[in-house]
Amino acid sequence: MSEQDFQNTNKDDKTTMTEPTATEISQLSHAVKHSIRRYIYELDGTLPNDVLRQVERPLFEAILEHTKGNQSRAAELLGLNRGTLRKKLRSYDLHK
Q1: Are residues 42 and 58 in the same domain?
Q2: pTM, whole model, 2 decimals?
């Protein structure tokens, strides 16, 4: 998804998003892997014990912002059961 596509989806409620292509998914995977590798490098390989929490929380925040708080849609985008998402949101104090 281009930056323009991203901006359009955030400013216009009527804009519909299509399912991501394999290329877009792999680009996201590449960006995440690159960021994590850089993070590990900057910490000289010494990782804190809560790396998953540090990754999950901003992911949930971004997805909830994108779905305007619609937890059913957020769970669908994340590939989670809605109950599982709600449990995780409570653990991060992100529930409403």
Answers
A1: no
A2: 0.68
